[in-house]
From TrEMBL:
Homodimer. This is Histidine--tRNA ligase. SUPFAM superfamilies: Class II aaRS ABD-related (SSF52954), Class II aaRS and biotin synthetases (SSF55681). It catalyses: tRNA(His) + L-histidine + ATP = L-histidyl-tRNA(His) + AMP + diphosphate + H(+). Its EC number is 6.1.1.21. Its main location: cytoplasm.
Length: 419
């Protein structure tokens, strides 16, 4: 016990689950790299203005959930609540768009939102994200969606649904917004929701309360009010998803909580998770670069929540406990044997054979127990007498069979056996 524990809404990612956490990151990372996405890392905090301008002042994320603080010289800084605004900021700052189009990037890290804590919702959480910056091609929207689907599938996650919508563009959305507002003003809504009708009416469609949803059956839908270009874009995306046999559910009331989206938006929901069911989400944000003072750079991206992906894996009965890899475990009795064993372990690791050993002068019984716990297939047991005879005992931990092997042949013998 310590006097302190991790702050509310944060968590320690402990073994053996932490290995799965890493595996998810590596799985998505390798797959994104194979699709031409390069890794980017941005700071954990940014100028507060970046998120106010980028994510939108009226969003819950900005107005209620940011960890904002002043540093010692009075700057207003904010722990990043999401990744997209910062990635676009970095692209613009370093003029990456001058080199290639689209700039394809992926990232991973902790994000921070002061939210009500519940299962699947924490105040520090980890995302893997991908962004393709500088392309208006609807095929890139489809590439994005396909990559997320592939990532989940490769982890063995299958009980998820893809919700898809279009939010229109700066031409057709305002017209739709006015139409929706007119409809919403005629409903019986509480004061706060009426205020939302005036500021961010599309968010009202997303209201989970049954008394609100019950009144929304006849609400005008964005997908019936798209301009020709947006309708075409959307039809291309749905058509291509059909061709790839990627199932999706049209979700004309899906809005998402960030203001930068236009056209395609999507969310991956998992039905085994309860209220916080979104394991990932994203969409197009064609105007964000301009909002941040840059050129026009139509873009699309997504982020996947690692914690929720792990919950999804657990809900599907997938094994999320991953012990550390170990093929060979060294057991030494006596000081000179310890040194020899350590040299074997180092050489095995250099040969890409996962190896570990007993430390702290453990006695034979304790060391053999640790060998069994490690999951290794072989133990190298070395006592002073073995050493004098120039051999080590190679023990097959499954069968218990033990054979002496000349010291200078130990590494090669193990390499052969473990091929
Ligand atoms: P988001 O939907 O706000 O999108 O977050 C993406 C994912 O992060 C969610 O689907 C969820 O799995 C996870 N997540 C969000 N908040 C929490 C929380 N409090 N606790 C646990 N997990 C959470 C974005 O952040 C956008 N930047 C995605 C994007 C990239 N759009 C375009 N490019």
């Amino acid at each position: 016990m310590s006097t302190f524990s991790a702050p509310r809404g944060t968590f320690d990612m402990l073994p053996p689950y932490s290995e799965t956490f890493n595996r998810i990151r590596i799985q998505f990372g390798l797959e994104l790299r194979d699709a031409g996405y390069q890794y980017i890392e941005t700071p954990a905090f940014e100028d507060t203005g970046l998120f106010v301008r980028g994510v939108g002042e009226s969003t819950d994320v900005v107005s209620k959930e940011m960890y904002t603080f002043q540093d010692r010289s009075g700057r207003s800084l904010t722990l990043r609540p999401e990744g997209t605004a910062a990635v676009v900021r970095a692209v613009l700052q370093h003029n990456l768009q001058a080199q290639r189009h689209p700039v394809k990037l992926w990232y991973f890290g902790p994000y921070f939102r002061y939210e009500a804590v519940q299962a699947g919702r924490t105040r520090q959480f980890h995302q893997i994200g991908a962004e393709a910056i500088g392309s208006a091609d609807p095929l890139v929207d489809v590439e994005m969606i396909a990559l997320a689907v592939e990532g989940f599938q490769k982890l063995g996650v299958s009980d998820f649904r893809l919700l898809l919508n279009s939010l229109g563009c700066k031409e057709c959305r305002p017209v739709y917004r006015a139409k929706l507002q007119e409809f919403l003003r005629g409903l019986d809504l509480d004061e706060e929701t009426r205020r939302r009708v005036e500021i961010n009416p599309l968010r009202v469609l997303d209201d989970k309360r049954p008394e609100v949803q019950a009144q929304l059956d006849d609400a005008p839908l964005i997908t019936d009010n798209l301009c020709e270009a947006c309708a075409e874009h959307h039809a291309f995306v749905t058509g291509m998803l059909d061709e790839l046999k990627i199932a999706y559910e049209p979700a004309p009331k899906l809005v998402r909580g960030l203001d930068y989206y236009v056209r395609t938006i999507f969310e991956f929901v998992h039905d085994g998770l309860g209220a916080q069911s979104a394991i990932g989400g994203g969409g197009r944000y064609d105007g964000l670069a301009q909002d941040l003072g840059g050129p026009e750079l139509p873009s699309v991206g997504w982020a996947v929540g690692i914690g929720r992906t792990m919950l999804a894996m657990e809900a599907e009965g997938l094994d999320i406990e991953m012990p550390a890899d170990c093929d060979v475990y060294g057991v030494a009795l006596g000081e000179s044997a310890r040194r020899e064993i350590f040299k074997f372990v180092t050489a095995l690791r250099l040969a890409d054979i996962p190896a570990d050993m007993a430390f702290d002068h453990k006695k034979l019984k304790g060391a053999m127990k640790a060998a069994a716990q490690s999951g290794a297939r072989y133990a190298i047991v070395l006592g002073e007498r073995d050493l004098a005879e120039g051999v080590a005992q190679l023990k097959d931990l499954a069968t218990g069979e033990q054979t002496p092997v000349a010291l200078d042949a130990v590494v090669d013998t193990l390499k052969e056996k473990l091929q």
